[in-house]
Amino acid sequence: MATMIDGESYLGKVLVRPLSESGDVTMYLWPVRCLKSKMGGPTFGVDVKGEEVIRYDPHGPRGHWHKGGYDKLGAGGSHTEFPDDIRDIEGQITWALDQIKNNGADMLAEAGFPDAAKSLDQEMVGAASEAVINHLSEQGDLIAKAIDEGLITA
To answer: How many structural domains are present in the chain?
Structure first.
C-alpha cells in the first residue's frame, strides 16, 4: 500500500482488496487524505507487490490522478488531470474506477508491470470497486469532519 506522508492526516479506516488471484495486485483506499496544502478527499490506487503504480486523488476541483508508476516517477512525474467535465468527487471516483476496470491492464503494462497486467482479474476489480463505494458510504461524511478540524478547506 502507498506510504503515508509525514504532515498529512488520514481519516477513516483503510481498505485493501486484491485484484489478482495471487494477491500481488491490490487496490487500497484512504477514505480521506488531508494534504499539507489543505486540500483533500478520498485517495485510492493500485499497487503491485507493494509498489504504488496508479493513484487517484478525487479531491473535487483540485482532484487529479497519477499514472505510469507513482513510486517510480514521483508525484510530479506521474501527475495527470481528470477530464475537464469531471470536477466533483463522486464523478471522479466513478470515472477512476471505470478506468481501472476498462484500462487497468494497459496502464499496468505501460508502467512496466506486464505480468501484473496479465494477472488483473476483472471480477476482483469489480468487487474491489464495489467495496470502495460501499466503504466510503459506511465511513460517513469524513470530509465535513476534516473541514471542521481545519485539516482541509472547503
So the answer is: 1
